[in-house]
Design brief:
The chain is built from four helices and no strands. The protein has one domain (8-129). By secondary structure, the protein is mainly alpha-helical.
């Protein structure tokens, strides 16, 4: 049964709970998978994590729509960060070669900063758009 929202504040709270909650939950699960599991089971557990993420998104979409919107935007943000950092990492290979770690780290930091600036404005627009 879908939740009926009474205010924009409640919608925003649910949105941010879904967005931040997804990163926290996945961070903890990835930490658990990478440290506690046998190395032979890690690939399977990572695959299960993907299905759990999709299941959480579907369940939230049925029960609390703004939590689902936060989870979906967290998915999109993680994917976009991966693409941006992939481009910057590849560019660092052309600039300094694959063995120059300081150039790679510099490009990684530059990509992260540019992504954070762009992400801030996107998240701000989404936050303000929730009414």
């Amino acid at each position: 049964m879908a939740h009926t929202y009474s205010s924009a504040r409640e919608k925003r709270t649910d949105f941010w709970a879904g967005f931040v909650g997804w990163f926290v939950a996945n961070g903890l699960l990835v930490l658990l998978i990478s440290t506690a599991l046998d190395p032979n089971l890690r690939a399977g557990a990572s695959g299960v994590l993907i299905f759990l993420d999709i299941g959480a998104l579907v369940a939230a979409a049925i029960v609390r729509q703004y939590v689902a919107m936060g989870i979906a935007l967290a998915f999109a943000s993680a994917f976009a960060l991966t693409v941006v950092e992939g481009v910057f990492f590849t560019a660092s290979d052309f600039v300094g070669g694959m063995t120059n770690t300081s150039i790679q780290v510099g490009f990684f930091i530059a990509g992260a900063i540019l992504f954070a600036i762009g992400g801030f404005f996107v998240l701000r627009a989404v936050h303000r758009g929730i009414s």
